[in-house]
């Protein structure tokens, strides 16, 4: 069964099942339910309020899904949770700006379209079980009408993003240029040599120990000596040294950190389910780029996404500049 939070996360493209009609008349932007009118405002966009309850319900729904998705990766979990909270208000502001634009051009989100959206969610996410859907709503502290309102905002946002992005046409020349410009993206992960220090969470004050060792290493401490004395992994007797390896063979966040860490640098402390890990990337062998024809579909999608995002970003800059946006603070 699909997590309810996935239906409260704005995405760039709208589904084919979402219908939008353009008529000659405008409409007022969807407002918060009556029971939320006493909420403190965290922002006002062209006179329309964004309330604490709006912010809380969006962040709660998204963070619940993130907690489930990254339960075994505390570092990734912490980063994703921070990103949601940091971006939530901006997302709601953008939702309102795009809703204003939607209604200016005569957009109408008919009730039957929202009902079709709800039916689709129940069918695809809850195998047609409306009772299971309603139970999930209750578990998330959402009334059905509030869920509809949030979905309406998100659907309008996605419709407008798709409209702004428009049709993207690419040429063989532009694809080849995009491929050459981003060769590393089409290359294999290559190989890396690294050293690690691993502190088991069974160690007393494990986090403090890991932070202290990281400080020593960052200040020029002997990595191999520290690994031999303090590391709990199977490479400790070799001073934390690993043989050449494919970084994608490492687990989750460790792999991502290794790929992002420059040669000769020491990573931040990486929190895993049962340990804290510090990595030093000693050397790299870059992977060979895949032939253009073998990744042409990926290159095409990448270039089209880049153009679409650029158009949307440019339009949002214009809309924000032209709007009356007042932020009262989300804390």
Please give a structural write-up.
The protein has 331 residues and is mainly α. The protein folds into two domains: 4-169 and 307-327, Triger factor/SurA peptide-binding fold (Orthogonal Bundle); 188-285, Chitinase A, domain 3 (Roll), CATH 3.10.50. Helices cover 49% and strands 12% of the residues. The protein contains ten helices and eight strands. The strands form three sheets. It has a three-stranded antiparallel beta sheet with strand order 3-2-8. It has a three-stranded antiparallel beta sheet with strand order 5-7-6, with helices on both faces. A two-stranded antiparallel ribbon has the order 1-4. A hairpin with a 2-residue loop joins strand 2 (41-45) and strand 3 (48-51). The radius of gyration is 24 Å and the shape is globular. The protein starts with 20 loop residues before the first strand and ends with a strand.
Key attributes of the depicted protein:
331 residues, mainly alpha, Triger factor/SurA peptide-binding fold, Chitinase A, domain 3, 2 domains, three-stranded antiparallel sheet, 49% helix
Topology:
Layout: E1 21-22, E2 41-45, E3 48-51, H1 52-69, H2 74-104, E4 107-108, H3 111-125, H4 130-139, H5 144-165, H6 172-181, E5 191-200, H7 206-218, H8 223-230, H9 252-260, E6 270-271, E7 275-285, H10 296-322, E8 325-327
Antiparallel strand pairs: 1-4, 2-3, 2-8, 5-7, 6-7
Helix pairs in contact: 1-2, 2-5, 5-10, 6-10
